[in-house]
Amino acid sequence: MMSDPPNSITGDEICPMCGKPKSKHNTKEISECSKKLVEMGIMRFCGLCGLTKPAEKIHDRCGKCGEKYSFSNS
Asked: DSSP state, 43?
């Protein structure tokens, strides 16, 4: 879900929103950070299957269900 490189000490990804290691997020924090990343246009959310992935283009296909959708982040 989060795209920052792994921390060289722990090997864990760092959240670009809060700066905490991904493994230290609880369920609520994962949801909050993911929502902020989608709102900022950094990540994309498929409303059909729930997959969240890094933003690439204005129009894209979901890697999980194959649905083509546009991302307005609004």
From this structure: E
